[in-house]
């Protein structure tokens, strides 16, 4: 077995407040191999985006990474110098934010920003960088790319700005892309084109992808493995077909049964009762217990440890039986 490209072990990120420090990411473990796409799914507030920010050390105060390791090619990014991190970000590790305005500078043209992203990490000249930038825009469905390079972010729609951000992330063919719900603002046709380009990049160059989303249909189309997150913890992880066809954690089953894209036409949706707990008021034991139809007495006492192996595991005292149909 070769070492994974990315290995996250015991990652814990807290947010400090007047009444204490509350964990948004609470002991997260997962790995991503070269060329693998891992889908990280869960409801809003589950800790998905904070996990992505933590991997590249972009958590600002009052947030703080207080424990764990983020090993990228064996190097712990939690202990890397700012200079090392600047050299990796945008080159070997690219991040696509949910809000493209976090990426784009309003006073620079699109071409200037994309060329800078290339020349900061690669030798070459500006005309060559601009040609690469134009090619990248065309790949994500932006017409007249040479004209678009001369324009400013405010001249683009929100969806087009997001496509520019995605194109910028693909420029240097990074080893790892961390994508935080990057296709939420795009129509389904452009979304399919983006997913195709990401899959193509992964196959041809070995780029690994962490795709953070709440959309299980995207995960089904794109991912090799799925990690399901709830209340700051990964509660189930495994190959995409296993997770979608035979979920073991009740929360995973609830997500599938409440998603219109994952239910057969004519079938009734079964939403999960209640809401996810706030980070400052999580229940004792299993955090999903108050919403779980399969909860036992032990669930209020003991947080279940992972059951299974590194490839397929879940955290539940009373898992969904393997033979039980989704309903």
Which strand order spans the largest sheet, edge to edge or round the barrel? 6-7-8-3-9-10-12-11
Dominant shape: globular
CATH architecture of the domain at 1-92 and 175-183 and 212-326: 3-Layer(aba) Sandwich
User: What do we call the CATH homologous superfamily of the domain at 1-92 and 175-183 and 212-326?
Assistant: P-loop containing nucleotide triphosphate hydrolases
Strand content: 15-25%
For the biggest sheet, the summary is:
8 strands, mixed
* Helix percentage: 25-40%
How far apart are the first and last residues' alpha carbons, in Å? 38 Å
Strands, count: 12
GO cellular component, one term: plasma membrane
Keywords: ATP-binding, Cell membrane, Membrane, Nucleotide-binding, Transport
Family: Belongs to the ABC transporter superfamily.
Organism: Stella humosa
């Amino acid at each position: 077995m070769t070492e994974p490209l990315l290995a996250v072990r015991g990652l814990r990120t807290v947010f400090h407040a007047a009444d204490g420090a509350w964990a948004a990411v609470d002991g997260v473990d997962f790995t991503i191999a070269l060329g693998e796409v891992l889908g990280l799914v869960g409801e809003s507030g589950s800790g998905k985006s904070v996990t992505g920010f933590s991997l590249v050390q972009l958590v600002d105060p009052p947030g703080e990474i207080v424990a764990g390791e983020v090993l990228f090619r064996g190097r712990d990014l939690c202990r890397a110098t700012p200079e090392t991190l600047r050299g990796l970000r945008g080159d070997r590790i690219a991040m696509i934010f949910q809000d493209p305005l976090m990426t784009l500078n309003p006073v620079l043209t699109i071409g200037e920003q994309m060329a800078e992203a290339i020349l900061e990490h690669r030798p070459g000249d500006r005309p060559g960088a601009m040609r690469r930038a134009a090619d990248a825009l065309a790949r994500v469905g932006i017409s007249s790319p040479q004209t678009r390079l001369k324009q400013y972010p405010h001249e683009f729609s929100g969806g087009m700005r997001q496509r520019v951000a995605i194109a910028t992330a693909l420029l240097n063919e990074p080893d790892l892309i961390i994508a935080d719900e990057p296709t939420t603002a795009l129509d389904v046709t452009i979304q399919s084109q983006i997913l195709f380009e990401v899959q193509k990049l992964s196959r041809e160059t070995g780029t690994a992808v962490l795709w953070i989303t709440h959309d299980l249909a995207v995960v089904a189309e794109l991912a090799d493995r799925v990690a399901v997150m709830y209340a700051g913890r990964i509660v189930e992880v495994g190959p995409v077909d296993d997770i979608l066809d035979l979920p073991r954690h009740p929360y995973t089953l609830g997500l599938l049964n409440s998603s219109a894209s994952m239910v057969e036409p004519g079938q009734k949706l079964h939403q999960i009762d209640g809401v996810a707990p706030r980070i400052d008021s999580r229940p004792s034991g299993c955090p999903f217990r108050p919403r779980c139809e399969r909860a036992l007495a032990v669930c209020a006492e003991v947080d279940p440890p992972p059951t299974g192996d590194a490839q397929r595991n879940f955290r539940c005292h009373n898992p969904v039986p393997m033979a039980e149909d989704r309903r």
